[in-house]
Amino acid sequence: MSDETLLSIENLYIELRLDGASYSAVKDVSFSIRRGETFGLVGESGCGKSVTALAIIGLLKPPLGLGGGRILFDGEDLATVSSARMRSLRGDRIAMVFQEPMTALNPLSPVGRQIAEMFVLHKGATWHEAERLAVKALGSVRVPAPERRARDYPHQLSGGMRQRVMIAIALACDPDLLLADEPTTALDVTVQAEILELIRDLSSERGTAVMMISHDLGLIANMCSRVGVMYAGRLVEQQDASSIFRRPQHPYTKGLIASLPLLGARAKYGRRALQEISGVVPSVVDFPRGCRFNPRCSLSTNICVEGDPEASPLDNGGFVRCHHHG
Amino acid sequence: MADAVSSCILKVEDLKVEFPLGGGVFGNRRIVHAVNGVDLELRSGECLGLVGESGCGKSTVALSIMGLQSPTGGRIILDGQDIAAPGIDRRERARVAQIVFQDPYSSLNPRQTVRKTLEAPLRLHGIKARSEIDDRIAEVLARVGLRPEQGRRYPHEFSGGQRQRVGIARALILKPKIIVLDEPVSALDVSIRAQIINLLLEMKDSLGLAYVMISHDLGVVEHMSDRVAVMYLGRIVETADWETIFTRPRHPYTRALIAAIPDPFGTGIGAKIPGEVPNPIDPPAGCSFHPRCPHAIDICRQPPTPDLEEIDGGHFVRCRRARDFV
Amino acid sequence: MGADLMNSSLPPDHQFWFGTDDQGRDIYSRVLYGARVSLTVGIGSQIINSIIGVCLGLSAGYWGGWWDDLINGLTNMMLAIPSLIFALAIMAILSPGLTSLLIALGLTNWSFTCRLSRASTLSLKSQGYIQAAKVLGYGDIRIMLTQILPNILGPIIVIGTLGMGSAVLSEAALSFLGLGIKPPFPSWGSMLSDARDQMTTAPWISIFPGLAIFLTVLSLNLLGDGLRDILDPQSRTRRT
After folding, report:
1. What residues of B are in the A interface, CB distance below 8 Å?
2. Percent of chain C scored above 90 by pLDDT?
3. Nearest CB neighbour to B190, from listed A191, A256, A271
4. In this structure, is residue B101 part of a structural domain?
5. What's the CA gap between B156 and C240, in Å, rounded?
6. Which of A268, A220, A254 is nearest to A240 (CA)?
7. In terms of domains, do B274 and B184 share one?
8. How far apart are the first and last CA of chain B?
9. C129/B106 CB distance under 8 A
């Protein structure tokens, strides 16, 4: 992992237009990812983590749209490039893996061909050459008997296999950045561990930076070197992985960790009632004024309702967005 | 917590559920043994956690207990009565066992108010007096943390967590003795899971309920269960009290499941097992786990399937080498 | 409505608001009287169709098995026979008249509603609240009536109103063949048929009954849409 910044998101705004009104699905989000680094984005439904990834890869569709900010990828601002340029980058230098491989793969095409397409499109390979490379790619994602599997259709494969195919497609052209949106949520736990390890091994072998998106804080803290926590469209905290679990700064992060039943906790401390976070996760049309977490926050005071907090830097290089942090 | 006085409220004996797959008239009719000889016991006030990955049969066991799936063999004895016997009324079973479903968005009739959803079963079971109906509805709504006036609302007006509370209220309205919880919090936002978990535990203690909880989230299982049964390909491979399962698991599959959970404080992904759950139509001979087992030796691969043996008080393992692992 | 050949084929004026037809009859009053027939047959036969279709389709979807196979076979048969021929056959057995028309048309057009009900039921069956109802002790019939039926009504109502329009047209065809309402009693459909030859010379004879059919079918469709929305709690209230 180098120190060089590969991706820099600056003051990103994503709008949602519904019935003539405009809502900020993502408000003023800034973070950066270094070459070869694994960065995690954690949050619940409606927090904006998935649409942030879609914005990076240029797949935002109405009613969503970029409302401002810069997406600097290796010097280029993806927010302003032409769609032709974005198409050439997509798949070749920035790739994405989704949660549900069954809907992301073409059900009418053998998986080997879908991988081969990448080589034909981006590397100018012939189909013959591309199919050979596709079999090699299947092997690299640890699919047994790759020559045979390449001829299978997606429905003939298990969920874990399909996800491997997705990863093979994504990494076919050795992209600089891989966006992984809940890649293991739909999989069994033992398969999940394998896929995560696969992503980790391949990205470190090839120096690919990974942005991992999940609602599972434990998974993210384990896989990533730095973690950003999103809530209701805001990036409320960012720290390195080891600190985020041991010394969370934002009341939301603290509340989340305290509310999760962690493996091993009961054996050590007996069964303690989980600390609840009151209220519900707001929907994008109902985001509270001021700090968007304030209705559920035990530390909330007047300034929390009036003003959205700025990012306060932390000693370890991270930051937290809270009027009462610490 | 095995109490000689607390009654055995549910006893499942050698439960078998088979699904025929069309094989044509001349070909062999293929059969999936979704549940292949499962024995369970549940006492009042106890929570049994049923864990396993896809294809293990835990959902089919739950559906059989609830009468939504007819067993091919074995007995299910609910509160002393064999419910698989013909002539057992749906209504009688309804007063003993109820279920909370996984998906709060499809488990409520969208065209009925909450009140109607709760009132109709009462009327069906012979409670007609307006005052008694009102009392019971108010009581059950209060218990799940909803206000009485919310009874007039329709499901779409509630959040996921609130809908789940309504589902729990519906399960309580007939005052059952057992509640089957099918992934009760998986479909909910992470920050509100603690609310539901705490509610379920409080209800169990104050009402003396027994739970069969199905979950793939081992953290939740560890937190809530008194006893745990681990299933693989239609059979129970290990069962013991929660502490034994989570601190001293013996079966290699149980160990793999636990090891697969990402540890937020560490970076190792943990001991993985290769491959995926085999197709239940074609289970391996001998011990069905042997193709993936890191400790498999020759006798493991040969039929018959090992029996569930008690290796310690209340600790049963289905493995020929169980005593070799300490 | 009496025939008065002195006044034949007069265009609309202050005395005959819609003009007269080739037999001198006042079209305006014929349209009004014709409404009775067309509306009764249109709405009534479609209601019969919908009831048959829903009963068969819902039960087929819910119970499955041999009952489902039977209903499917029946539906396929009905779809293979041109509905008008079938209605003709029935009308040939019964004597012409309003009730017979109702029966004939009511028995021929239920296949689409049946398919729709069955498909909707199948997709609904896996919803949690259906299983919950079984678990709460509800019997099958009660589940079908109180849990499934209200949730599949929306599209059924819309299809139903569309069917009403086609029933009006079917009635016209039958009346024209002499197997429906016999002349001189008016029905919009037969008025249209009668006016075929005079489309260019006396267009008002066909315009007004045609307009009546068009407006009726349009309002029935809008009514259907409105009913569907009124019955759907989700369109009435927003999330609180």
Report:
1. 53-54, 159, 161-162, 189-195, 197-198, 201, 216, 218-220, 222-224, 242-243, 246-247, 256-267, 269-270, 272-274, 276-277
2. 28
3. A256
4. no
5. 9
6. A220
7. yes
8. 24
9. yes
Is B299 found in the same domain as B157? no
Say what the pTM is: 0.86
Number of domains in chain B: 2
- Please check the confidence at residue C215 and state whether its pLDDT lies above 90: no
Could you tell me the pLDDT band of residue B27, with boundaries at 50, 70 and 90?
A: low
Hey, which CATH number is domain C28-232, 3.10.520.10, 3.40.50.300, 1.10.3720.10, 2.60.120.760?
1.10.3720.10
Please say if the pLDDT value at position B1 is more than 70: no
User: Best interface-test mutation with B: which of C135, C138, C148 has the largest number of B CBs within 10 A?
Assistant: C135
User: How close B161 gets to chain A, by Cα (Å)?
Assistant: 8
Residue B28 is classified by DSSP as: P
Residues spanned by the domain of B155: 110-175
Instruction: Please list every residue in chain C whose beta carbon sits closer than 8 Å to the beta carbon of residue B106.
Output: 127-129
The order of strands in the sheet holding B81-82 is B30-43, B8-21, B73-78, B81-82
ipTM of the complex as predicted: 0.87
CA separation for the pair B198, A272 (Å, rounded):
10
- A194 contacts in B (CB within 8 Å)? 272, 274
Is B102 domain-assigned? no
Q: Say how far apart CA A181 and CA A52 lie, in whole Å.
A: 10
Contacts of B91 in chain C (CB under 8 A): 137
Domain ranges of chain A: 5-93+173-320
Residue of B67, B154, B158 lying closest to C233 (CB–CB): B154
Q: Where are the domains of chain C?
A: 28-232
Domain A5-93+173-320, what fold? Rossmann fold (3.40.50)
Contact B210, B177 (CB under 8 A): yes
pLDDT tens column, C15-40: 778 888 777 788 888 888 888 888 88
Task: Out of A161, A188, A259, name the one closest to residue B191 (CB).
Answer: A259
Residue type at A110 in one-letter notation: P
Q: How far apart are alpha carbons B29 and B24 in whole angstroms?
A: 7
pLDDT at position A97 over 70 = yes
- To the nearest whole number, what is the mean pLDDT of chain A? 91
State the nearest Cα–Cα gap between B83 and chain C, in angstroms.
13
For residues B32 and C20, the model is more confident at: B32
Asked if A285 reaches chain B (Cβ–Cβ under 8 Å), the answer is no
Are the C-beta atoms of residues B132 and B123 closer than 8 Å to each other? no
* Residue A20 in this model has a pLDDT that exceeds 80: yes
Structure confidence at residue C213 (pLDDT): 81
What 8-state DSSP symbol labels residue B155?
G
Shared domain for B23 and B140, answered yes or no, is no
> In the predicted model, is pLDDT for residue C238 greater than 70?
no
Indicate if B266 and B125 belong to the same structural domain: no
A261·B222 Cβ contact <8 A = yes
pLDDT for C133-175, tens place per residue? 989 989 899 999 999 999 998 889 888 888 887 887 788 777 7
Condensed to tens digits (0 to 9), the pLDDT of residues A122-163 reads 888 999 999 999 999 999 999 989 999 999 999 999 888 999
Cα C230 from Cα C240, distance rounded (Å): 19
Clarify whether residues B132 and B233 are in a common domain.
Answer: no
CB–CB of C135 and B157 under 8 A?
Answer: no
Q: Do B219 and B86 fall within a single domain? A: yes
Residue ending a domain, among B124, B156, B175, is: B175
Which of B109, B178, B179, B182 is most worth mutating to test chain C (most C CB atoms within 10 A of its CB)?
Answer: B109
Q: Are B276 and B183 within one domain? A: yes
Question: What are A68's two structure tokens?
Answer: 């401002």
| Confidence (pLDDT) at B4 | 44
Q: At residue B268, does pLDDT exceed 70? A: no
- Residue from the list A189, A271, A280 with its beta carbon closest to the beta carbon of B260: A189
Q: Is residue B3 part of a domain?
A: no
Q: Is A279 helix (H, G, I), strand (E, B) or coil?
A: coil
CA–CA dist B69, B221 (Å, integer): 24
**d(Cα B51, Cα B257) in Å, to the nearest integer?**
9
Q: Is B86 found in the same domain as B33?
A: yes
